[in-house]
Amino acid sequence: KRTSKEKEAMYGDCVVQVTAEWLPVVDNLLRAIESASRYEKEIDRSVVEGIELVLRQAESCLDRLGVEPIEAVGKPFDPLLHEAVMQVEQEGAEPGTVVEEFKKGYRRGDRVVRHSMVKVAN
Length: 122
Fold this sequence. Notes:
With 122 residues, the protein is α+β, with helices and mostly antiparallel strands. It is built from 2 helices and 6 strands, in the order H-H-E-E-E-E-E-E.
């Protein structure tokens, strides 16, 4: 039983470590889609669609590994899940609420792979 638990823990550690290394690739795919979606030519749209397919495949792999994005915008700030990089006065937002997400965070089960970088209402 102990060996089995150790193997499972080692597997979880490996998944988290490899996921952390791949998240910048996912970030760059998101940036590419955002940047390329400004163009309206047909060939540019086909490039965006290709990037979106690769991104969906990457997200599917993360999902199969049990890695899920951390919900941030509109949620109360949680220092265990979020990293506040800015605080702002924002009308209509409750103090301590995340109002913008700069970088998406991910977790696997109870373990945070990467904290969400967020802006919090003061």
